[in-house]
Amino acid sequence: MVTYLDSTYQEALSLTKEARDYLANRASNRHPWLKPEDRLQICCESMRLTTRLTQVVAWLLMQRAVLNGEVSLDEARKPDNRISGQGVCEPSDKLPDGADPRMVDLMGRSHQLYMRVARLDSQLDRADRAKKKAP
């Protein structure tokens, strides 16, 4: 599990850096030819991207703290330390026409990573239920 979390953490950091570079570069070119509503949607999707990645990295850091003995598993199971933002992190139906292929790729990969970590987070619930059932 430690190796899996470490590789997932490295993947999350790499994707976060890639998204940061993309968004910083794109900031100088706001697609002035797009309709205002399309520009707004692209901005919203950019925020969705950063929210997903922030949630993932925060959750992974908490799990690393548990593995290092810095935080108890009970503390990690508290709602404030779980992955959240499901409503925000769900993909939108469609990106606007002005979304370039790199943005589409970042959105897809960030969503896949978010869903993978959400499944890991749900295992904390299973472990907690199993613990309560044990005599």
From TrEMBL:
Chain intervals for the UniProt region annotation (Disordered): 79-100
InterPro entries, alphabetically?
Answer: AraC-like_sf (IPR038301), DUF1465 (IPR010848)
Q: Which protein, by its recorded name, is this?
A: Regulator of CtrA degradation rcdA
Q: Which Pfam families match?
A: DUF1465
Q: Compositionally biased, Basic and acidic residues: which spans?
A: 91-100
Species whose genome carries this gene = Kiloniella litopenaei
Task: Tell me the Gene3D superfamilies matching this sequence.
Answer: Protein of unknown function DUF1465 (1.10.8.930)
